[in-house]
Amino acid sequence: MTGNPRTTLLDPTASPPGDVFTLSRWFARLSVQSALPELNAFLTALLGPYCVLATGAAPGAVTVSVRCSPTLPVAHDDLDAVPRSPQLWLDEDGPRMVVLEHLSDTMVTLRDMEEDSDPVLISVNRPEKAIRLDIAADTPRARRAVARLVAFLLGAQLHSGGVPVLHGSAVARDGKAVAILGPSSSGKSTLAFLASTLAGWDFVSDDTLLAWDEGPNGPLSVSGSPRRLGIGVGSLTAHPARPRFETYPLRRYGDSPVGPLPTPSANSWSGAGRVRLYCDIDELTAITGTRCAQHATPAGIVLPVADPHLTGWRVEAQTAAGELPELKPTSGRNLRYFVDYLGILTPRPFDAEGRARVLDGMRRLPRVRVRYGPDVNADFPRFWSEVTDALGLGEARPC
Predict the structure, then answer these.
(1) By the 8 A CB rule, do 78 and 98 touch?
(2) Helix (H, G, I), strand (E, B) or coil at 277
(3) Residue-wise pLDDT tens digits, 343-357
């Protein structure tokens, strides 16, 4: 691979041969022109529960072209310049964004240094709302990087328009969602996983929740983010799907089975002691048979506390419409996949009024505070029935 990364800008408006399709989430749109065979099917598997895919391009949408370029204009020989280039680390473990060129209308950025994906060269033409993604070879690792960039480009459009991003999970039944909100290690992901795999509810989101409405008189909606799920091994204790998780070839582990999972310790639900198993949404549905809901109308809020020393559980109704710190939109590193720090996209006008209206609507929902111990796994349907009854959702029963 040769070329000068400071002077070589790919033409992101040039359309590669291959498939053309559009991904959408509410007002966010991406028209993808892909030279990679069946990229639409790959993106559907990873992003499908949260995006609508349609054939053809959408007028006014951001255009993303994807190419396999064995001779990229950025090579390891050329990367002597990278240490002297501005760099943004989205997380301590990557990915890294290296700014190779940043002008008023154009930008070239290298996305790399992520454990389970390959580098991608990102070329941007802002006036044309066109982005080109170049990978060195069509590999599963490279496709994963493309999928994550596509998810980011959709999420960044929503966030820049005012959609609040909450630190929460959610499940749904008959179009009604229960949002599970709380700080890290409070048990949000555990409840969402168990409710969707043991109580018959649809999976909506793990750890990241987006909320919006259809206008001042429109219904609220919540949806998730297309990201890899981290399932606590403690939640798999005596779970009927545990053997399948041990033998299923998961992408995170090189398409190989993880083998026997460790026996969780007493503090397996704490931040320090938790051991996680990682899988994608389509892998979760294949292993457990769980259904996914693209979005649902929130009907109640659960505020969990996972207590490794508690036997059984306690459900306590809370006063609705009062202040709820858990509804404060997330910030800092939790927004690293939603904030367009480098200005790749042209932001849409921020809807502060709509954002405040959505948060106020969420604040008015019935809510319960739940403290539960590890033995909840053994009797989860009864536990979850008590939780939903306390929210006034007793009619939303699994079939």
Answers:
(1) no
(2) strand
(3) 999 888 899 999 999
